[in-house]
Amino acid sequence: MISLPVSSVDGIPIIVDIVPKGNTKVRPAYAMVPKDVAVHNTGNSAATADALMHGKYLRNNVAAGSSAPYASWHYTVDDKRIVQHIPLNESAWHTGDGSGATSGNRTAIGVEIAENSDGDYAKAERNAVILVAFLIKTFDMGINRVRPHQFYSGKYCPHIILSRDGNLEKFKANVVAQNKGGSVITEPAPAPQPVPSELPAPKSGEGIVDYLNRVGIDSSFANRQVLAKQYGVTGYSGTAAQNSTLLTKIYEGSKSSGNPAPKSGEGVVAYHTRLGIDSSYSNREKLAAKYGISGYRGTAAQNEQLIQAVYKGKSVSSGSGGSSSSGIKQVGTVQIVNLNSFTYVYAKPDKSSKRVGEAKKGAKFPIAGSLSGWYEVIHNGKRAYIDAKYCKKV
After folding, report:
1. Burial of 46 by CB count in 10 Å (0-12 exposed, 13-18 middle, 19+ buried)?
2. What's the CA gap between 48 and 339, in Å, rounded?
3. Predicted local confidence at residue 259, as pLDDT
4. Do residues 219 and 206 touch, judged by C-beta distance below 8 A?
5. Which of 121, 225, 279, 303 is such that its CA lies 20 to 30 A from the CA of 157?
6. Of 140, 150, 120, 152, nearest to 12 (Cα)?
7. Are 38 and 75 in contact (CB under 8 A)?
8. Stretch 56-66: mean pLDDT, rounded?
């Protein structure tokens, strides 16, 4: 079956916009018999980033040739429509677990839920529930074959649903209710991620929406309401005065972790004890790994690095690892092995992409996910990629 045998489900139009063959980074064209449905959030809250725009994105990637990322999925759902991009009898690159015959990429229908700030997310999620219900009925799947992206590779996705509900169970209950003729209940999106540390200063005359977009924070009204509550801006309705106050609080609040500064001459044990943090050597080892201090042995230099990392709430700038305080879900740790000196850290899972750092032998990195031949790691608070042949899970 290439497409569903209907042009709409429950009044939601289905637009079939299959991307052309020719670029296997977008349309791998492996034959597939669907066994699962993998649920995703697009991770793109920009205005106009609806289902149609994501279709254009995939078509542009087909034309981009070898510079395109390994990324594709079968459907994008927004608050108005369902758009199909890949045939249902072909695989796509959406679960981050490689190209093996039993991988999610080769067995699961990928459904992306749009989160564009100018759309109605709750309605988009409701539409996704209706589509997924129709898919599992069509392909005779049990409800336990509906899985989050996180199930396959550990990536924290669908991030809106996971951060709101903790798992996919409520979404699945709604799917069951839909197929039984019951009601479907979804909720508005919460804040997608914590505010990063050390944000740049606002530009002169820059409004809060433009600022949040520039620093990579969801600028939707729903998320600004959540941020307002977090920063003590009561009764937020989006007035100019409230926006100015919220912008100032977000910027000022990003400058440190909220921990008091270390006192002059204060050692790491005394500082941690004063903060109420376990100051034992074993816990300091864990904190060192968290903040990117590789090979921690308790030296004076390492202890000073650890004091500053805990105070500032971010990783050290040694290039030796990433920070799990970035808002990206950590699912494990890899250590760099099988080389004499170092390998590069890349912006994309492609050695022709930008080099964003060095991974020295013995260094440890938090894992955010994986795909064929690569580990997705957290490096300087962002997702990056290291060749899997130089990595060992620890």
Report:
1. middle
2. 45
3. 63
4. no
5. 225
6. 120
7. no
8. 94
Q: Name which of 214, 171, 204, 166 is nearest 46 in CA terms.
A: 214
Paired with 219 in beta bridges are: none
Q: What is the pLDDT of residues 224-280, one digit of tens each?
A: 777 877 777 877 767 778 888 888 877 766 554 556 667 777 888 888 887 778 888
Task: State both tokens at 121.
Answer: 């997310």
Distance between CA 292 and CA 280 in Å, rounded?
18
Residue range 8-179 forms a domain whose CATH class is alpha beta
Mapping DSSP onto H, E and C, the string for 262-276 reads CCCCCCHHHHHHHHC
Would you list the domain boundaries of the chain? 8-179, 208-253, 268-312, 332-393
Q: CA 364 to CA 357: how far, in whole Å?
A: 13
Q: What is the pTM of this model?
A: 0.51
What are the residues facing 113 on neighbouring strands? 41, 77
DSSP string computed for 351-365: TTS-EEEEEETT-EE
Instruction: Average the pLDDT over 61-65 and give the result.
Output: 93
Please give the pLDDT value at position 322.
38
Strand partners, 67: none
Q: In the CATH hierarchy, which top-level class contains the domain 332-393?
A: mainly beta
Beta carbons within 10 angstroms of residue 171's beta carbon: 23
In Å, the largest CA–CA distance within the chain is 72
**Residue 328 token pair:** 């990206």
Q: If you search the block for the tokens 């000196």, which residue do you land on?
A: 341
Cα end-to-end span (Å), the chain: 42
Mean pLDDT of 32-49: 93
Q: Residue by residue, what is the 3-state secondary structure of 38-99?
A: EEEECCCCCCCCCHHHHHHHHHHHHHCHHHCCCCCCCEEECCCCEEECCCCCECCCCCCCCC
Residue 154 to residue 166: CA distance in whole angstroms: 14
What letter does residue 31 receive in the DSSP assignment? B
3-class state of residue 390 by DSSP: helix
Tell me the C-alpha distance between 73 and 61, whole Å. 13
What CA–CA distance (Å, rounded) separates 147 from 105?
13
Give the span between the Cα atoms of 149 and 112, in whole angstroms.
Answer: 10
Cβ atoms within 10 A of the Cβ of 229, count?
Answer: 12
66: number of Cβ within 10 Å: 8
Burial of residue 281, with CB atoms counted within 10 A of its CB: 0-12 exposed, 13-18 middle, 19 or more buried: exposed
